[in-house]
Specification:
51 residues; mainly alpha
């Protein structure tokens, strides 16, 4: 059986990051919308805690 080399792990991680970036760029409106929704939800929760 072959062992997993550092090179294999690096290429796998590079591929995963590449796919994440491609998906984020391809669905830019959805990515920004989800980010803003999460930001707004987190902001409202923080305000509730401080009151």
């Amino acid at each position: 059986m072959k062992t997993i080399a550092k090179r294999d792990i690096k290429l796998f991680l590079l591929g995963m990051v590449s796919m994440l970036l491609i998906e984020a760029i391809y669905d830019w409106d959805g990515t920004v919308g989800a980010f803003l929704k999460g930001l707004k939800h987190g902001w409202n929760e923080e305000i509730k805690k401080t009151k």
